[in-house]
């Protein structure tokens, strides 16, 4: 079973060829082009520019992905495409390509939820067994979900305002770090003193594993306004902020373990923020203490990529799900729990 997968929901144009193979041999090709140059001047993703860049990049990326996989288009068995949630202009570009290929090649098409792609990545990279506790943390989402089985998602808690990635990006912008903010802030934090500034941890005293990052963002913003920001102070603020997010993640993990319906044996971290080394180390050490296996997909599978979309389609096929009809529509909002069987 060979799947051609397409991901265009944010600022990465990504196409992969995936095979239902043994673990080390599943990704025949993965070509991802990030739109850093297009959005750099604006300090954030501009939806209209993102859609246009997807449109001009998608065809060469398709050709590269097919060439790298060493197959011809006729060899694919099905097409998988992110149908939401995401920036609708970008999602439309991917969906239109998927529908055209499906019609011209006469292949079935699977409309995949982007969050499900992130949620199942650890099964692609590590063969993670169900059930597991998932911390999904990206530019638009931050949530604890019990993944009990295929399309059995139990949401334990989520952010009540901003996502963690959004907060990394905003603070990086205020500190004049490079774009994209998350990885740039992580690099600067290495040279900073994480104890110099003490930032709040909103929702610290509530029992649910929910998150709130807007108060933390405001506190960091005020600190930036009050201080003279030389190179060292910028690094110290970055380190203190990143340290606070690590402490918040650990606290909320303890709460999620208490709220979970089953005894948690595995924690999976997924989404772009899961690429952060400090946050991985913090969660790893708490998991070791609690005798929980911590699973972190490789960096290029944490940030947006088409391989996870292809894999979600393989899981759907393995669970006898029928392909989507070609009338399916892209969705800007599409909660993970709506997929539950
Ligand atoms: O999953 P993703 O690629 O796209 C969404 O679906 O949102 O996540 C992107 C987010 C951005 O906010 C980015 O700054 C953040 O993940 N991110 C990081 C790191 N790498 C990416 N945040 C912190 N540290 C990183 N190393
Ligand atoms: Zn994502």
Annotation keywords:
five-stranded mixed sheet; binds 5'-O-[(R)-(carboxyoxy)(hydroxy)phosphoryl]adenosine; Nucleotidyltransferase, domain 5; single chain; 10 strands; globular; binds zinc ion; 341 residues; alpha/beta
Shape: globular
Task: Look at the structure and give the mean pLDDT.
Answer: 96
**CATH architectural designation of the largest domain:** 2-Layer Sandwich
CATH class category name of the largest domain: Alpha Beta
Please give the largest β-sheet. 5 strands, mixed
- With helices defined by DSSP (H or I, 4 residues minimum), what is the helix count? 11
Ligand species: 5'-O-[(R)-(carboxyoxy)(hydroxy)phosphoryl]adenosine, zinc ion
Commentary on this structure:
- The structure is a single chain.
- This protein is an alpha/beta fold.
- The protein folds into 2 domains: 2-120 and 301-339, 2-Layer Sandwich (Nucleotidyltransferase, domain 5), CATH 3.30.420.40; 130-296, ATPase, nucleotide binding domain (Nucleotidyltransferase, domain 5, 2-Layer Sandwich).
- Strand 4, helix 3 (88-105) and strand 5 form a beta-alpha-beta unit.
- The strands form 2 sheets. Strands 3-2-1-4-5 form a 5-stranded mixed β-sheet, with helices on both faces. Strands 8-7-6-9-10 form a 5-stranded mixed β-sheet, sandwiched between helices.
- Helices cover 44% and strands 18% of the residues.
- The chain has helices spanning 36-39, 47-69, 88-105, 114-126, 164-174, 181-189, 214-226, 231-259, 277-289, 299-302, 307-318; strands at 2-7, 12-19, 27-34, 78-84, 109-113, 132-137, 142-149, 152-158, 266-270, 293-295.
- The chain contains 11 helices and 10 strands.
- The mean pLDDT is 96.
- Helix 2 runs parallel beside helix 3 (88-105), helix 5 packs parallel to helix 7 and helix 8 packs parallel to helix 9 (277-289).
- The two termini are 24 Å apart.
């Amino acid at each position: 079973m060979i799947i051609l997968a397409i991901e265009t929901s944010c600022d990465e144009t990504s196409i992969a060829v995936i095979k239902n193979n043994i673990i080390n041999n599943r990704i025949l090709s993965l070509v991802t082009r990030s739109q850093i140059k297009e959005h750099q001047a604006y300090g954030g993703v501009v939806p209209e520019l993102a859609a246009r860049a997807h449109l001009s990049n998608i065809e060469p990326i398709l050709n590269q992905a097919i060439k790298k996989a060493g197959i011809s288009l006729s060899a694919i068995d099905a097409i998988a495409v992110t149908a939401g949630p995401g920036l609708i202009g970008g999602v439309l570009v991917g969906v239109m390509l998927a529908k055209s290929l499906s019609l011209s090649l006469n292949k079935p098409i699977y409309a995949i939820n982007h969050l499900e792609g992130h949620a199942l990545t650890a099964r692609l990279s590590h063969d993670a067994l169900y059930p597991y506790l998932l911390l999904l943390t990206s530019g638009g989402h931050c949530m604890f979900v019990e993944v009990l089985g295929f399309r059995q998602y139990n949401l334990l808690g989520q952010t009540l305002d901003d996502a963690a990635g959004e907060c990394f990006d905003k603070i990086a912008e205020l500190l004049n770090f490079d774009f994209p903010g998350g990885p740039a802030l992580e690099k600067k934090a290495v040279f900073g003193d994480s104890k110099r500034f003490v930032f709040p941890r909103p929702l610290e005293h509530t029992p649910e594993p929910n998150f709130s990052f807007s108060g933390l963002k405001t506190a960091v913003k005020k600190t930036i306004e009050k201080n003279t920001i030389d190179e060292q102070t910028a690094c110290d603020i970055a380190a203190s902020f990143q340290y606070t997010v690590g402490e918040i993640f650990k606290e909320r993990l303890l709460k999620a373990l208490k709220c979970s319906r089953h005894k948690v044996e595995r924690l999976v971290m997924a989404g772009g923020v899961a690429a952060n080394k400090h946050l991985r180390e913090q969660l790893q050490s708490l998991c070791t203490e609690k005798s929980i296996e911590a699973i972190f997909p490789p960096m290029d599978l944490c940030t947006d990529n088409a391989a996870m979309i292809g894999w979600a389609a393989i899981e759907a096929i393995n669970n006898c799900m029928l392909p989507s009809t070609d009338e399916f529509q892209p969705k800007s909002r599409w909660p993970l729990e709506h997929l539950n069987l």
